[in-house]
Amino acid sequence: MTIASYEGISALSLGLPPTTAIPAAKGELPIRAFTTRPPVSSRLRQHFSTSVDKIVMLALLRPGSIPVTDGAHCHEVLVMAVGLKTPDVPEDVLEHIAAMRSSGMVFITIHQGEEGLVCTPAVRRAQPIKAGHETRHTLHLGRPRPADKARLTLVGDDMDQLWDSLCAQVTLDQTDGRNLDNRLAVRERIDLLKAQEVKLTGDHGRAKTTQNRNTAFAKLQKVRAELKHLSADNQTTEV
């Protein structure tokens, strides 16, 4: 059987079992299928046209194709190649595609870089919510990497664990998906604190009065203390 691929990227090149591979005849999806039902804005339709070259289903991960049991929340994961015309990942396009299916979806976006093909993985993951609240999702982009370094590892006994592991691989470059939402929240907080540290360092250097300088320094010390604490905890968790 000839399997689906895009520029040499396939289920097998990603390290996935042959049993998960989509046949080539069923792999490529027409872009218009994502822009007609439901109808999309003219801006999003244009973004599909200017950003996306092809959309190809590469693999379907589910009980029966891999040795896992069904999950309570995740029942299957579709691995999609999205060939891009430019290096910029169209996040609104990926959001739209992922929202059309209730299953998990791992995107492998592919574009031509200066030294060859570059793959940027992405996932759309539900945010933790309190009972009775509406579910919201966040699109997470992974680290760009050469196409020959793009890999997915199947970790977990059931589909829920597998989905968490795949999300961890995309977002954190780790296969351990345990407690992932808390780890992502910590990383987001660390990124915010780093941005505040840069701003406060500038404010301290530009301060024209002793009072303003002291105020900026006090805030800077507070930010650095929290950043040190979170960074130490994060490293401990990763180890």
Give the SSE map.
Elements lengths: L4 E2 L2 E2 L13 H4 E2 L12 H10 E10 L15 E8 L6 H9 L4 E10 L2 E11 L10 E5 L3 E2 L12 H14 L7 H27 L3 H29 L1
Parallel strand pairs: 5-6
Antiparallel strand pairs: 1-2, 3-4, 4-5, 6-7, 7-8, 7-9
Helix pairs in contact: 5-6
As an assembly, this protein is single chain
Order of helices and strands: EEHEHEEHEEEEHHH
Q: Give the proportion of residues in helices.
A: 25-40%
Number of helices: 6
Number of domains: 2
What best-fitting shape do the alpha-carbon axes yield?
Answer: globular
Mean pLDDT: 91
- Please indicate the percent range of residues in DSSP E strands (runs of 2 or more): 15-25%
- Biggest sheet: strands, sense, closure? 7 strands, mixed
Could you tell me the radius of gyration in angstroms? Answer: 21 Å
How many strands in all? 9
The class by helix and strand makeup works out as alpha+beta
Intertermini distance: 42 Å
- Poorly predicted sequence stretches spanning 5 or more consecutive residues: none
